[in-house]
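Let us work through a complete example step by step.
Step 1: write down the sequence.
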Amino acid sequence: MKIGIYASMFGKDDPPTLESIESYIELAYALKVDLIDFRGNRGFESTDRSYLTDVKIQCLRYGLSIGYVASGGHFVGTDTELEEKLAQVRADVDVAEILGAPMIRVFCGTPLEDPKEQAREIRSFQQACDIAAEKSIAVGLQNHPSTGDDVLRILEQTERDNFTHILDTGQWVGSPARNQGIPDPEIDTYGFMEQTVSHASHVRAKFYKIDSGKEEWLDYVRIVDILKAADFNGPVSVVFEGKDVNDCDDTQVMTRAVAHLRELI
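Step 2: predict the structure and record it as tokens.
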């Protein structure tokens, strides 16, 4: 397993300690992680080829692979809204191609009950995969927030060879992140992870409360055991979402999260 960080531009510090894509690249190098993930519409100064090439070369010089470019998804809404979401997919595929990222991320959202809405959702995922396939890029389905059954349904019904799963440890239906650190006792989110991990190519390792040096909202001992039991060999990338519950600054959060994963992996 490889360890990475996600340049989310979603920190809590004011003024920010991580204020740019470049600052995340410098942090990734300082922490000696293996890779970095980006978000297509956040943090980049521009999407000009020359600028994105500079970002790519800086990562190369620092020995950092680029895992994926996060796009949108959640394919519900009017026809116009779906077209706008697919236009964002196309734009992010172009960014991924220039950066040399093998994958973009799309998320599914809360499970849909209406069969007609499900059918439109699947058609949109198929279109997203077809757009990405034109540039030889994969599409990773993130469970945000979903269930194990729904992730498997979407993967199966989309029927595209370049469609894979990005397992998000903290964004399931019933996750503690949905209720300020308190899990839903009626929902087994670790069971969802066990259910879907064999389909995963990448893990978004969410961190919320890590002042102590160990994540307190999620059990990473258990999560890493799930990954090892499945013989997972992909990236495990730190994603910080605990904006209001840590005393340490964003750089310290990322540093402690990476150290916590290293100890377990």
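Step 3: interpret the result. The domain at 2-264 is CATH 3.20.20.150 (TIM Barrel).
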